Amino acid sequence: MIHLKNYQEEAVNDLTKNLYKLLKRPGARQNLIFKAPTGSGKTVMMASLLNKFCEELPERYELEKRKAAFIWIAPNKLYIQSYNAMKGFFAEMRSIKPIFFEDVSNDELLPNEVLFVNWESINKEKNTMIKENETNKNLYSFINKAKLNDTEIIVIIDEEHMFANTKTAKRANEVLQKIYPKVEIRVSATPTTSSDYRTLVERQDVIAEEMIKEGIILNPALDTIQQQGRSLEEILLEQALAKREELRQAYENLGVKINPLLLIQLPNDTSDNNTADDEKYIDVVLQNLEVKYNITVNNNKLAVWLSGRKDNVADIEKPDNMVEVLLFKQAIALGWDCPRAGVLLIFRELKSTTFTIQTVGRILRMPEQKHYPNPLLNQGYVFTNLSKNQIEIVQDDMSYITMNKARRIENYLPVNLDSTYINTRIVRNRLGAKFRTALYEIAELNWEVKREIGSDHFFETNKQLLKKRFINTDINTIEIVIPENVLLTGEVETQLVTETARFAKTPSELARLFRDFCRSLTAPYAAVDSTPVLEGAMKYFFEDYFGIIEYDAIKIMLFNDNQPIFIELIEKAKERYQEMQEEKANKATKDIQNYKWEVPVERIYNELYDEKENVEKHALEPFYEYKRASSPEVRFAAYLEEQKENLHWWYKNGEKAKEHFAVPYEDYLGKQSLFYVDFVILSKTGITCLFDTKTAGSDPANAHLKHNALIDFIAERNEKGHKTIGGILIPKDNNGTTTWWYCKNKITNTKDTNGWDRFDPVNA
């Protein structure tokens, strides 16, 4: 069962809509662009698209052809990875059949088959897969035969950007012209083809679902003054290993068993074979790792993945694998993923100075698909031997790859704040894996059936209970009538049935009728995703409780006199499932994580922030200010600098991430939310100040609710001996002088400021 995130579900729906539009258009080779960031789960989304599409296609009567086969083209060995992923997705549902070239049967691509091929096997006329031969058995003949049987051909071009260079693009166009598919779905994080039909996944949506890291920090080379006679390679290796150790310690402090991995990528990353430059870097790296850091292949701390050499690579993806460093080449490891990888050291040739998400894609994924309270673990780290003025970042990735890093001041004094993060999970509008549990609960409660794991002596007892409910289980006398005008998909073709007295005999006929039966009972859940779940649950129910095989179980359930009894059971099971989902949702809203908070040791700022000069008291150096910061925020930051003699430090807080300080509150809709105060301040008198700047009357729905929650928070801190003040902070202008006012008590609005106190850092 494929479980989709919000953005994935939206993308699949949009892809499906675009695909149907293109199938209706005249002509062939229609382009559908699917742009999704690295780490967003492109393969999962494509699998869900194929499943949804193949489920719906037979009933899309507005289309001329209602059968489709797919050809999945990928570079190098990426096609094997995609094949294995698809094989895993469809092991249970069987709506799609992933195959290799040698698996093609009857010399033809059949409906719902996905043929996985690597580009190198079809890019030359002499290649076996496309070469003409006496038996006329090659890729093109298989495709043509499928077309003669009214099967649409849809090509999926994985990592489409890799076919963009002039020579490859020309040859790819020639191959695609011979295949002549109805639709070409071009999948990439950086697609090069343009089309009016595009589906786009935004990187921010992927970050919000905590699938990938919040950003990538690109560290340029150190100045020669800092090298102290050592080579640049030695300095970079030292820095990268230190960062890996910092991450390891951070995981350990959280009690998370993840051993972060440092990846070292050789410079000539477009070729499998090692060059002279490669050998130079290999020698330097291996010698330094062994002599200075005791990291070797023999002690299992080093893995090597190069042409003709794979040391300690097995199980390297496991979170707690012993390997700390992997030396590899990009061309060899294309498509390989290792979520525990957090640091990347790239030795680049001067001719390739452009960095993109594709370059650093291997350190994007979150190892547990969630962000951590420690911000260090929510970033990826890249070290390179290029200087800052040589590095180019492509426009599309500027908001993600950044060199703007601020570090906490050395004389920082702690504030010991209790921060909160609410981890919410959305209940999906489809039946999930827990439906079978709900079905079993209802059956045992209402039908009094029982089961014992590892035993089958209860089968006959349960069958007697079926008979008591007047369920006919005599499969020898049961006949299933096929209603008029029901389309049945057989092994070869789809035929229209018009006679009303015909009986379903073949497994394929029964399977289709059972699928339609289940589909009709999925409401209010999405039919495409829920139908296979309901089908599987009912089949397992018969197998687990009665020992009845699938074919016989379907006949029993579809028998006209039995149907009302099973429909009642399914409806009650759906009600129980809904209760379970609501219970889960209620728990999810209470999934509140509380943790101690201090100003982060390090914070990364993207291109939406500008570095500000002459700021001396900000807790992070340098100070980066949001380009679209509100007027009160900008003015108050300037005021704090004017009052710097009275402050230990001040900090401009962030929003919507675990690394930022937040107080829980209920918004005007009664929903649990988080209040990220704008400023955290520590005065020279030792008082912690928590202020959120606003203009009078702004945010009327929630401002007073946020303030009041903060007042309760402050009261608790003061009771514990932590002197604290704060609240909503309003500026007042008088004769060119601005003063700042807050209320120590709870409020009903921010317009009436009578009785409010002036914030004075001298006496705070």
UniProtKB/TrEMBL annotation:
Record-linked Pfam families: ResIII
Domain Helicase ATP-binding: 1-228
Coiled coil: 567-598
Protein's UniProt keywords contain Protein biosynthesis: no
Matching InterPro entries: Helicase/UvrB_N, Helicase_ATP-bd, P-loop_NTPase
Transmembrane intervals: none
GO molecular function: helicase activity
Keyword list, A-Z: ATP-binding, Coiled coil, Helicase, Hydrolase, Nucleotide-binding
Protein's UniProt name: DEAD/DEAH box helicase family protein
Source species of the chain: Flavobacterium macrobrachii
